[in-house]
Amino acid sequence: MAVNLSGNWRFVESENFDAFLEALGSVDPAMRQVAKSANPRETIQQDGDTFNIKTIAGKTTEIKFKVGQEFEGEIQQGEVKISPTWDGSKLRFEFDSPKGKQVQEREVRADGRLYLVLTAPDGTKSTRIFAKE
């Protein structure tokens, strides 16, 4: 069993997010500016392998799932099937978008912050960093 990701997390910084959005190919420059200026918050409730993740960033999205069980979620390009797994202490999502496979990984690192690493189908990565409230 990996670490507990539970908590209220507020966005503090981002690395390479514009390049990641551009690599997705479906996010126009105006929408990229809006996405870059957002300050999302995540509330993660974890009970073992069962999760409820609420993200507030302009609009609120909420996903409920169990690691190891595929579920449906929504991305910019529409509905996708998401496969959640543990990769060591990382909660990993894999899904196929219209442009190819995308990956999201969440983990709490030694500094106590939550790191959300996004990988576009072409391999472009972005890291979104959150601090616990």
TrEMBL record:
Name of the protein in its database record: CRABP2 protein
CDD domains: FABP (cd00742)
Organism: Branchiostoma lanceolatum (Common lancelet)
Record key words, sorted: Transport
Domain Cytosolic fatty-acid binding proteins: 7-24
Gene Ontology molecular function: lipid binding
Protein family (similarity comment): Belongs to the calycin superfamily. Fatty-acid binding protein (FABP) family.
The keyword Oxidoreductase appears for this protein: no
InterPro entries registered for this protein in UniProt: Calycin (IPR012674), Fatty_acid-bd (IPR000463), ILBP (IPR031259), Lipocln_cytosolic_FA-bd_dom (IPR000566)
